[in-house]
Write a structure and sequence with these properties.
Helices cover about 20% and strands about 35% of the residues. It is built from three helices and nine strands. Strands 4-3-2-5-6-7 form a six-stranded mixed β-sheet, sandwiched between helices. Helix 1 crosses helix 2. Its cofactor is Mg(2+). It holds the Pfam family Pribosyltran. It is an enzyme of class 2 (transferase). This is Hypoxanthine phosphoribosyltransferase.
């Protein structure tokens, strides 16, 4: 879906599809350089990071195994941080002794990412890094290496996998939702 289809709901388009895909390619090149000769396990966080995870995997120039986890740290009614994380789907790949990269679309409060890193560290991987397409201003520093696509402003960002109450995930760009659309 193009931004034109929901233009009345958007305050602004932050990143076009072309800008996103170009940066995903750059991130894949950085990862490829840093992880040369190592087999990567890419762990996507469902549902928001599905699009980003697949695009990142396709841009990598080496073999990669993809695993999925589903966790929730936002309530479905308010889209605000709830203060706790609930695991909805566990990883079904053994990562012990392997190099892991967590793919996430946005790092906001850091709650989800901190929980994920802690959870995955208990499984004794060789290494953990994070690759996030977007990072909001108040996002904390991570305790692991991080590849960050873009720093973005605060606000309800939708598109490229990110939703608001289940809508806008299929928007090809990343955009700030207008205040009147946040209900």
């Amino acid at each position: 879906m193009d931004a034109d289809h929901v233009a009345d709901d958007l305050e602004s388009v932050l990143l076009t599809e072309d800008q996103i895909l170009a940066r995903v390619g750059e991130l894949a090149a950085e990862i490829g350089k840093d992880m040369s000769g190592r087999e990567i396990v890419l762990i996507g966080v469902l549902g928001g990071a599905a699009t980003f995870t697949v695009d990142l995997a396709r841009a990598l120039e080496s073999q990669v195994e993809i695993g999925w986890m589903a966790i929730r740290s936002y309530t479905t009614t308010s889209n605000r941080a709830s203060g706790s994380v609930r695991q909805l789907k566990d990883l079904d790949i053994d990562i012990e002794g392997r190099d892991v990269i967590i793919a996430e679309t946005v790092i906001d409060t850091g709650l989800t990412m901190s929980w994920l890193i802690s959870n995955l560290n208990q499984r004794r991987p060789a290494s953990i890094a994070v690759c996030a397409l977007l990072r909001k201003p108040d996002a904390p520093q991570l305790a692991v290496p991080a590849y960050i696509g873009f720093d973005v402003p605060s606000g309800q960002i939708v598109g490229y996998g990110l939703d608001y109450r289940g809508r806008y995930r299929n928007l090809r760009c990343a955009a700030v939702l207008a205040s009147h659309a946040v209900r």
